[in-house]
Amino acid sequence: MSSTAAADLLSLPTKATVANTISDRRSQELIIALVGPVGSGVSTAAEFIREIMEVEFKYSVCPIIKPSDIIKSEAHRVGMTSLPAANAANYIDVMQTAGNKLREKFGNNYLAEKAVERIAKFRKEKGGVAEGGVLKPGRRAYIIDSIKHVDEIDLFKKVYGEMVCIFGVFAPDQLRSSRLKDGGVPELSVSNIMNRDRGEVATFGQKTRKIFVQSDFFLCNDKKKDELRQNISRYLHILFGVGVHTPTRAESAMYEASSAAANSACMSRQVGASIVAENGELIAVGWNDVPKFGGGLYNEDDQSVWDAEKGSLVDKDNRCFKWKGCVCHNETRRLGILEEITDSVVKSGMLKRGISRADVREIFKGTAVDSLIEYSRAIHAEMEAILTVAREGKRSIYKATLYTNTYPCHNCARHIVAAGIKSVIYIEPYDKSLAVSLHDDAISEDPEDRTRVVFRQYDGVAPSNYVKLFKSGAERKRSGKVIRTNPATSVPLFSMPLDSMADYEAKVIADLSDKEQAPLA
Known about the structure:
Belongs to the cytidine and deoxycytidylate deaminase family. Pfam families: dCMP_cyt_deam_1. It comes from Chenggangzhangella methanolivorans. This protein is of the alpha/beta class. Helix content is about 40%, strand content about 15%. The chain has 19 helices and 16 strands. Strands 2-3-1-4-5-14 form a 6-stranded mixed beta sheet, sandwiched between helices. Strands 7-6-10-11-13-12 form a 6-stranded mixed beta sheet. A two-stranded antiparallel ribbon has the order 8-9. A hairpin with a 4-residue loop joins strand 8 and strand 9 (about 310-315). The chain starts with a helix and ends with a helix.
C-alpha cells in the first residue's frame, strides 16, 4: 500500500475501538475455484454457485472465469490460430494441447495469472478500489471454472490466501464417459482424454488429480441436479456461518480416518481409515505404519520407553525413517528388481549399440515394476483398522462401512471383502490398485450396485476443514433464542485483511498516542 493509501486508512473515523476499525477492513470477497475431471459437470456446479451467491447471498459475481476462454483468446501466442468449435470431435484434445503449450511457454500458472488480471479488473469496475489504491470492502465473488494444474491453485492461494475456496466436482467414470460421447467425442478418444486430464507426466501438463484432493468441499454430480444444488447451498451456508450445521455421518467418519492418517510416519504417503457401523457408530480406526511385537503399530511414545534393566529411557521406535538405513524398503527393493532386470537385459547381449543401462531403465517407467507395493514394512491403514477390531475384541464389522483418505490397494480390498464390509468411501484415487481388476466379482464402483462391495468417492466437507467449519466458535443463541443469520448480510468465516500488517500497527500506535495524550477527565 502506498503512503497516501496508508494515510487514508489512518484517517478513517474511529467511533468505537481500533479493533472494530481493523475488523471493518477485512475483505468479504470470495474466490471459488472449481476442479474436476473432464465430463464431471464442473460447469453445472459453477452455474449453481453463481445463482446462489447472487440470489441468496446478494453478491456481485464476476462473469464466470473459464480458463478455456483464456486459452481460446491466447492460443495465438503459441501458434494455434485455428481452434475447433466446442462441438467438434477433437475439441477437448486440441484445447488440452493449447493449454499445455501456453503453460510451457509462459509458466505453469499463466492461466491463473490471466484470471487474476480479470479479477482485478472486475473489482475496479465495481468500485472496489478507492483513490490511492485503497481496497474497499464489498460483496464480490469470482468463480473459476476450472483449474487443471497445481501451480495455478498455488498462485491463487498466495495472492488471495483464505479467500480461496476449492470445490472438487466428480462423477462416476461411466457417466463421465457417456457425457463425453454425447458431446461428440469419438469412443476411441474418450479413454485417452480422461487419462490425460487425470495427470500427465509433463511438468506443464494437466494435473487435475493433484488439485482435486486439496478441495475444501467435494461434490458428486451424478445426474441428480436438485441434490447437487442442495449440497452446494449447504456448503455455502456452512462457509458463511448461516444457520446451525453439524457434520453428516460420512463427514464425521472421514474426519476420523483423516485424523488417524496424521499418526503415520510412512515416507510414501499418510493413509488413515475408519470403520463405522450401519448406525454411524465408530468401531475402529487405523493408519499405515510398521507393526510391533505385542500388537499394534510403533508410535511416537516408543521413542522414550523406560527400560528397567538399564534404568533409563530407551528408543524402541523401529519405523522406517530411523531403522536400517532410514529408507523406504519397498522403494529400495523395487529399484533393486529393476536393476536385476537391467543386468539381465545387458548380459543377454541383445541390446543395440549405443543403448545404455539408463535407456533400459527408462523403458520400464510406467510399467508394473513401478507399481510394486508388497515389499513395504507397513501395515496398511485399512488392515490395521480391521486388525484393531480383532485385537481388541470389538463388535462385528459385518455390513459396516470403511472410510479412507486413499482408495484401497488390491491387498486391502480382498480383506475388506472377506471381512463382510459392505461399502468403502475414499477421497483420493490410487492408480496402483488392482482391486476391481482382480475382484470384479465382489467389488463394484457403481453406487447403485447392491450385489457387491461398493467403492465410491467421498461427497462432503473436506476433513481438513472439519474443525474450522463445524467448531467456528460463532454464537448460536441470543437471549436464549437461536440467532437467525441472514445470508444477504453474512460474511465468510475466513477472510483476509485489506491492508498490510504495518498499516494496522500504525493505526494501533496512532490510537494509543491519542489516548495517552488526551487530557485527564
